Amino acid sequence: MEPVIQGLTLVFDPFNIALVFGGVLIGVTVGALPGLSSPMAVALLLPFTITLDPVPAICMMAALYCAGTFGGSITAILINAPGAPPAAATALDGYPMAKRGEAGRALGLAAVSSVLGGVFSLIIFLFAAPLLAKLALKFRPPEYFALTVFALSMLASISGKSSLRNLIAGAFGVLIGTAGIHLTTGVERFTFGIYELTEGVSFVPVLIGLFALGELLGQSQVLNVAYERITSIVIKLPSREDFRRVRWTILRSSGIGTFIGILPAEGATVAAIMGYNEAKRWSKNKEEFGHGALEGIAGPEAANNAACTGSFVPLLTLGIPGSGTTAILLGALIALNVAPGPGLMTDRPEVFWSVIISMYIGNLVLLMLNLPLIPYIARLLAVSRNYLVPFVLFFALIGSYIGQNNPTELLIMIALGVLATVFRFTGFPLPPLIIGFILGGMMEDNLGRAIRRSGGLEFLWERPMTLALVILALVLLVAPYLVDKLKIRDRLMSN
Prior knowledge:
Number of domains: 1
Number of strands: 2
């Protein structure tokens, strides 16, 4: 009970409360602007928050993450331009409602569904996290190595056109994450004779380059796109009849989102799509979907926010990121000298409980701020990208440089920004890359420790938990290939 009280005391510090409010406001605003995203905002905020204490820093970034996911639904509903990938499912029914003059009703339902999904996931978090942490306390280097392999293998099953491209992107991230001098052997890897790379590639320029500069370069061809100007919106909370109609959809999608969020390498986008599909499957009014169905808004919004919260379970208890954004948060925690994992609840309980409590507060603040501020946030669509891009670029350059005051960091950021652009135009996804970058070093370190303890690779089959995780990883690697083969066979048989 004492850690909970300590967490409450820390979170309810006026400065920390202000940071939560600021994180929610920045997240909603950034998420509402097409072309910008919550991962970009978290990456840009990272160099400034690592100067803070761990609790206020992670509280602000967690609030920003959850709020940014919802922010994307504002433009998805109003102008059919999702501000974030998870909001694409919301646009399918949100925009038709806006076209028939019910934008306020759609936005109110989206806000309430999003908050309820987040609160539901936090309740599950309170029960799941301690149990998972207790199990993870039995983990040793062999189990941690197998766990990172399992997390990387799940890249094959995440959303995207090609499982192979996901795995290639993840492998590329592992290569970047293992650059520098190996601490045990002293061998230099991927340094190209550059002295500054001998200590490895820093988190900050990688994250800013991939998610901020890469996004800007990718969006440079649509700088002059003009979006519809929003004049007046009156936000309406769901009526009793509306809530009665969608209550089971919200509950079902919250459960789906929480489960998807807990899985390593999955994310809010997958959860939102599944939430929408299940809402349609269980609905008695399937013909309304695509034309303004209430369930088509409540389902994906509850699922994507629940997934955001659920992704903190593997992050805090296992040190495994559940999405690209939580990979950034993992990098932030490491930079703040906080080691996520099973020992976090015992070694730094104030950090663990502060995150949970701040996310509860963040969801309440999200609802409090959204309802009155959405009409004003929507007017930001009138701001030209010709002004937004230089502004974001300035913060990207400053953020990359101030970490170590090293010009090489700027060059790394620019190089990875170009790489992100190449990835975008060739169809390679970025989340697997950043997950591979974060997990690559962890996988290598634990493999070395496991080999030194056992004298070889015998630990892979001599330890039951390690063997089980390795088998699961192999199944996940092979499963997408088998599914594709079955689809092809069924298609041929039907013809």
